[in-house]
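Worked example

This section walks through a single chain of length 114. The input is the sequence exactly as stored; nothing has been trimmed or padded.
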Amino acid sequence: METESALHASDFRFHESGSITTKGFVFLGADACVLFTEPEFGGDSQILEPGDYTSSSIPGSVRSVFIGAGFQVTLFAGDNFSGYSTVVCGNGIRVGQHLDGGVSSLKVEAIQDA
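Given that input, the structure is written out below as tokens.
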């Protein structure tokens, strides 16, 4: 008996920016950040370029975030950049226990070389 575990074309999400997301994997083009509605980079995703984002422009439940090299993201528990916040940077970061599902606004920024 043969089991099928391969990915199919329908498993991939192709984004206008040239990035591709699929079942726990992110293939970044020039994107700064990808938000996911499930832990470990799963569920629905939204690609963000550098900028400021309030609750009206991000998914209602942010459970993980992938950050491209050279960028940092400040995550806020409250809308309009208020409440508890944390700064994360690097390649592939999972939203921590203090903000798990509670990100209401965020700022995506390029990290300047010193």
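What to look for: Residues 1-5 have pLDDT under 50 and may be disordered.
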